[in-house]
Amino acid sequence: MKQLLILSGKGGTGKTTVASAFIRLSNAKAYADCDVDAPNLHLVIHHKSPVESTDYYGLPKAEINPDICIQCDQCRIACRFDAISKSSQYIVDPFACEGCGVCELVCPVDAIVLNPAVAGELMLYKNESIFSTAQLKMGSGTSGKLVTEVKRQLKPDSNHADLTIIDGSPGIGCPVIASLSGVDMVLVVAEPTISGISDMERIIKTASTFRVKVAVCINKYDVNMKNTEKIMEYCHKHDISYAGIIPYDPDAVKATNQGLSIADIDCTAGRAVREVFDKTKDLLSEV
Amino acid sequence: MKIAVLSGKGGTGKTLVSVNLAAASDQSVYVDCDVEEPNGHLFFKPQNLETEMVSIPIPQVDESLCIGCRKCVDFCKFNALAYIGNSLVIFEDICHSCGGCVIVCPQKALSEKTKEIGEVKKGTSDNVMVLSGMMNIGEASGIPIIKKLLKDESLDDSLTVIDCPPGSACTVMESIKDADYCILVAEPSIFGAHNLNLVVELVRLFHKPHGVILNKCLDGINPSEEYCKENGTHVIGSLPYDKELGTMNAIGLVAARESQRYREVFTGLLQAVMKEVGHEATSNT
């Protein structure tokens, strides 16, 4: 069984569009959405089984008991996250608190406790195929840990799947790093804009740091041919596998807005993504 | 006056809106808080660059003092320390720099060193002071870089446009923390509308006055516009799906500087935003 992760660095280049098409084309038995603070895969991939939801607990949040607090100021001084402030009494800003426990440690009168806090919801759909996704609770920060949980949820049932497809998040930070763990290959969906190229280079370097094989496909390639050529040259120069191109296609947005993947309808982008999928499968078999 | 531009979904046009609003103002500061994938500098091409490193404190162990009591290992909520074999191992990449291990060590075997995680670049581009943060490849969190950016001395009373990262997690919360107003950029797809809903929830949670700019508008159904109507979310204005704008954006040109038409469009949007901020300011007092 192979795991394919779809990333892009820059947001909005078409990760979910490509991931949903690949899920359809491969008739995938296991897939996940790791973009936990802006998940969208469920809007175009409708899994038929009922959802099993579980609360996700992130790190705890500190709370100060004003009846015990002697206002010594030590917690406020020790907190590296500026989460404690004093007005009429000492209070913890739950959005800034990272749950490290330093305030509890330094409090001389045990006025501070760390309380468990729900930081999101994990969702699992399971019948002959399995779909793992999650939604970070607004105001919570620990998205990397939630990504790890999404992948953990997928694991026990995905071993029999030939191909697991994971839709990733934009950027190069903790949620992306968490999603990289254990995958066989990353497919980067690049976009031929000056921003898209810069961001593609940074995500390729990030994946390489974690020694994961990378392939690149170019979405909306015909928006700027010069930049598309630059991306191809970059791949060639850095010996990065190239998985093909998908044109800009207004029908792609129409499909999305009807809750369909581009592989579900007959359109130019849908035909192009088939070739990208075949090429990606070949590249994946070489890993 | 600090205005944050965010979107939830990536690629809806945060940088396009931020860069052009800053350029349309007589004088402004543009701050790129998308430190994982900063792009504003590609458009502004700032001159007279000053670079400053950003580092964080990370624990280090003096093995001659460590007695293997594992108090630090037990304390660390991030599992950044482990006692393996007969020595303490520190996983720098997952350390949150809380400093707890140093406090809890009874032998004073732990101290802190600094670790570089990225840089802040400052320069000028005509009427705009440009600040960009850039996180080093392989680092997990850009929060300290965002904090440094938003504490910069050049952020005075003049217009400051904060270009936020995508999503709705910790880096976005840090970027909007001190904003006076939030602009939410949305695109006309169900993805755009779904993620707009999330960031509306986020800015409401932080009690931030906010409004929406609808980008890439085409004829026909706009799920984001419908969302705004149904939820009573204020729409500041809209930008068309336009090839000319797309081309300028693809090659790193600032539309408000290159085209008279777009200078007028973004000046109009900026005025609408300022009116909103003024309205919010008076209604809040």
Q: Can you tell me the overall shape of chain A?
A: elongated
Quickly give the CATH architecture of the largest domain in chain A. 3-Layer(aba) Sandwich
- The CATH homologous superfamily of the largest domain in chain A is termed P-loop containing nucleotide triphosphate hydrolases
Structural class of chain B: alpha/beta
Question: What does the average pLDDT of chain A come to?
Answer: 95
How does the overall form of chain B come out from the CA principal axes?
elongated
Total count of helical runs of at least 4 residues of chain A: 9
Domain module count of chain A? 2
Order of helices and strands of chain A: EHEEEHEEHEEEHEHEHEHEHH
Structural class of chain A: alpha/beta
Q: Helical segment tally of chain B?
A: 11
How confident overall, as mean pLDDT of chain B? 94
Overall radius of gyration of chain A: 22 Å
Classify the helix fraction of chain B into a percent range: 25-40%
| Beta fraction of chain A | 15-25%
CATH topology of the largest domain in chain B: Rossmann fold
Explain what this protein looks like in three dimensions.
The complex is a heterodimer of chains A (287) and B (285). Chain A folds into two domains: 2-57 and 120-285, Rossmann fold (3-Layer(aba) Sandwich), CATH 3.40.50.300; 61-116, 2-Layer Sandwich (Alpha-Beta Plaits), CATH 3.30.70.20. Chain A is built from nine helices and 13 strands. Chain A has helices at 15-26, 74-78, 102-106, 143-158, 174-180, 194-209, 225-237, 250-257, 268-285, and strands at residues 2-7, 30-33, 51-57, 61-64, 84-86, 90-92, 112-115, 118-126, 130-136, 163-167, 185-190, 213-219, 241-246. In chain A, strand 11 (185-190), helix 6 and strand 12 (213-219) form a beta-alpha-beta unit. Chain B folds into two domains: 2-54 and 118-284, Rossmann fold (3-Layer(aba) Sandwich); 63-108, Alpha-Beta Plaits (2-Layer Sandwich). In chain B, 36% of the residues lie in helices and 29% in strands. In chain B, helix 1 (14-24) crosses helix 11. Chain B is elongated, with a radius of gyration of 22 Å. The interface between A and B is large, with 64 and 60 residues.
